[in-house]
Amino acid sequence: MTSKDDASLNRKEQILDAAATLFAESGYYKTTTAKVAEAVGVTQPYVFHFFKTKESLYLAVLERAYQRILYAFTSVQAPPEHLQETMGNAFIELLADHRDEILLIMMAYSTPEPAIRDHTRSQFEMIYDRVLNRFTQAGLSEPQQKASSFIGFGLLIAMSETLDLPYLCRWRDKNSEKHDHH
């Protein structure tokens, strides 16, 4: 890969980062590709070079975050009795390191655009399948129930973060010392 390719790839990542922040702060409808371009310091046509529409940019932000979640849930290692907690901690780490992206994913179902809803549905099915598979392979009892509860708790964490209602989830209390630097 040439240095020009590297710079282009880096710029694409910067566009995705800026878009994640703006979509998380302002929502899908109020975020424009012009605002994303301005945040990165490029022209709007440059953004369109990578992403043909605002919807494709939004879906790319979601896809990158889904891949982070799937990787975290697949790669985490723990004995069966600690698997749920360890996977939960991996989610908390993602939230600390990629807050805007992770919150966007957890709230993407609220954007009524059909392509976004369809993408979100298929991605949540994939996450559920991945979690269920891990719980089943670990020999946990009632893996479907545990997988549903695990995802439900993730949604509750995202809601408590988005609305700044920390008392809905006490996970911050035990993790606050660990993540004070964020």
TrEMBL record:
The keyword DNA-binding is assigned to this record: yes
Q: Which UniProt keywords apply?
A: DNA-binding
Q: Which residues bind DNA?
A: 32-51
Q: Where is the signal peptide?
A: none
- Would you say which domain of life the source belongs to? Bacteria
The residue ranges of the HTH tetR-type domain are 9-69
A Pfam family of this chain = TetR_N
Q: Which PROSITE patterns match?
A: HTH_TETR_1, HTH_TETR_2
Give GO MF terms, alphabetically: DNA-binding transcription factor activity; transcription cis-regulatory region binding
What protein name does the entry list? TetR/AcrR family transcriptional regulator
The scientific name of the source species is: Paenibacillus albus
